[in-house]
Amino acid sequence: MNRFIILLAALSLQAVAIGTATAQQIAVQLSTRETYVDSAITLTLQAAVDDEYELPATPVIDGCQIRRDGAPRTIRQTTNLNGRVTRMNIVSITYTITPEREGTFELPPLEMKVGGKTLRTEAQRFVASKSETGDLLFVEVEGGASQVYVGQALVQTLKIWIKPYIDRENNIKLDAGNMWNTVSQQTNWGSFGDRMQELDSNGQRPGGREVLRTDDDGNERAYYLYEIDTTLYPRRPGKIDAGDLRVVVNYPTEIGRARDPFDSMFRGGPFGGSRLSQLMDEDGFASPFRNRLAVTAVRPISAQASVDETTILPIPTEGRPEGYRGAVGSYRILTEAGPKSVNAGDPIELRIGIFGDGPMELVQSPPLAQLTSLTDGFKVADDSPGGFVHDDSKVFLTTVRPRNESITEIPAIPFSFFHPQTKSYKTVYSEPIPITVAKGEVLAFDQIVSNHQAAEDGDPSNVVLQPNFDNSDSASVLESQRFDTPASGWLALIVVPALVWLVTFLAVRTSVFRTAWASLRSCILSERTRCQSDLERAQSLADIETALVRFIANGLERKQLRGMQSAIGALRLAGFRELALAFETEWNACTRRHSGIAEHVDLSSSRQRLFHLVDRLDSGLRRNRKSDVRPALSTSRKPADKSTNPAPAQGLLVLLALGLQSIAPETLHAESTTPQHSHSIALTGEQQQVILDEATQTYRQAMAVIETDRAEANELLSTAMAKYQLLIDAGVHSAQLFQNQGNACFQSGRLGAAIANYQNGLALNPLDRQLKTNLDAVMAVVESKRSGESEMPLEKRANVLDVVSYFNQALLAATGRTVMLGLLALSSLLFWALLFVWIFRPTFPVRILAIGPFILLAVSAISLWLASETKHTNFQAVLVSKQVVLHSGDGQEFDRVAEIASADGVQVNILEQRSGWLQIETAQNQQGWIPREDAIQFWQ
């Protein structure tokens, strides 16, 4: 091959020397011009090319298989002739040619386009002769039945006899392992292909043993016999034979000494590939001292397997059972189920095991959805369950749901199969499984006192509503609302004027206070200055973290920031994404630089960058305060007074500004607290109404059958919940819609999801008494489940606070919170203005004039306080899994610190959030990490 490349290069250089710099050369070479049938030879094409060329088409020769071996190889060559540098690329393409019959063959000219020109090779001829097998190789297939049915097991045994090669000169006889390695890769294993691939993947080979066999001349000779068993499962009617099974052996003809112990003449050569090279390492051939003997010549021999044809019969249709799914053989069925004690409509996992002698991977599950004995009492999935094969069995897993509490057992499951020996169908049954089904733990309509009855009862102790689970489909459900959470800013209308009045009183009446006040103001530091001072004194990473977290928490008015990661997350939520990234980068750098150092580390390299980040954040916070009016700040903080000598006129102006600003806090609050849940689904008003109608209609259908068919009701409720959720995801946020969704969740037994939806509805309308009543009903169910009580209180008697709160809500519903806030602002302004006058004129009749404003101030303040006490929850999330495990860290690999049984509906607080995990705290002060999908967060 190297000579061929050198010759081609020399031709190219010669062309360059005579001035034809653009001339192209091409040549082909056969590894040999004489070979055997089924013995591959190599064709090599090489061409000197430019940068642009096209590969030739693979040649076609009748009676030969030709394939290209891998991608072309490129050799780059540079020559210098009389100072003239020439660069040349030589492309080498290799083809494998395998003759399939004897005869003389001609390789047609190959054409290759290079640089816009077509290069053409010369035709090549070679001859293939047939290597006579003689008595060296015999192949038979035994065990084939004359006829079998589709899917019936057909066991066959492939027997291969190979005569051992004996070298008389070196007194060497190849053993069974060496002779098996002579089997060529050109062998076509036919129906035994899968079995041979399995043996090869496991690093195994058929076991060979020496036996005597009569040859064609009637003489007994020694042979190595290799037996390969396989089991076939015909999938279609017709004929099956071994006509495609042909064994090719590279039979040794000479053994000699190898030139090198690492000789690779048989690796990739035309005589058997890498298998033949293994002969060097077989026991009984190579000596412990490596005598370097090797097979130096072989000839291919082949044999066609002889076997009788087998007829594949179709499965008869006469007498076929309705539930037959194609199983052929002999089978039995077993079933298991769990849990065996459930509520109506709850899922039960049903495990079905099929055991038999047929092709288990082809066995299908019994048609459960078509078994009336099962579907009469259970809700069954329409699709067939998937299964997995284990040895001689196949296991199917599915879920069934009992329709009502009258179900006492899972009935026997039939399995039908065709028995080929008896040529008839047979059906076997599993044993029934006893179960206990209780009634679903939800409120039935006949247990609920209607709202009209409660309203008509004049007894004040009966003002508390009863649960109502009627879903509405009116257009008002689709009217989105803003958060209407009772604002606490109204307290500023009382506290701030009182403080201003007190300061004014002391300033006017006490000179010592004026001096102390001036000194105190001079000592007051800004949050930025305090943070930078703490950073300057920091001695450890913990000190730096404390200073930064406190500064960010105070700047963002967030009290529940625990750690630097939580503070960075708060910055992102507040819109400071760039600063959050800068803080996170610098903090990670600090952590890496000082990892493992506990105390007194050199933090000077980090302080200056942190000072700069603190300054940037302080500037951003001040800009936001100037550009964004926030009620919480405007009603709870008094603007700084630059004068050191307060005057009555200034105090009155401050009080007047506070009063006017507080008249409409409800509007400002609503604008800043719209639910911030992104949605990507765009629905028109008509589409929303259609979905709402469908959801409500499905919900009512579920409620109509919930007592008699709980499984069907659960499926309908799931459909209704999906449609309600579609509206929520489309941006429809109303208290009524969340009540509809909460009702559906409650009736389906998803208590945690019901609580989340009721809480979100109350976040939009905290004065909705029906929402609060339904929420109390769900919480009663949760408490009864956790305490083990069998009954839950459906009614409760109202105390004095409930009665007062009831009438106050009615008052606010009639007048509106805006009117009540205006009344509070005006009465506070008038009351404290009269007291201000009294400071400068002690003789002023303040007691008489201030009685009226004081009464109005007290009434409006008490009304707003009662409204604020209707806060629906002190928690931030609710658990939605039946059982929750708390981990010490954010991953399943961390230790378990606690376990919450009957967790569905338990409300918790969220301490920290990480990717896919939440750190929670329960009412019992249990802390730990749970997967995010185990909880739903409330809108706050």
Automatic annotation (TrEMBL):
Keywords: Membrane, Signal, TPR repeat, Transmembrane, Transmembrane helix. Gene3D superfamilies: SH3 Domains (2.30.30.40). The chain crosses the membrane at residues 489-508, 819-840, 846-867. Residues 1-23 form the signal peptide. Residues 625-646 are annotated as: Disordered. InterPro entries: BatD (IPR025738), TPR-like_helical_dom_sf (IPR011990), TPR_rpt (IPR019734). Residues 633-646 have a biased composition (Polar residues). TPR repeats lie at residues 735-768. PANTHER family: BATD, PROTEIN BATD-RELATED. This is SH3b domain-containing protein. It comes from Stieleria bergensis.
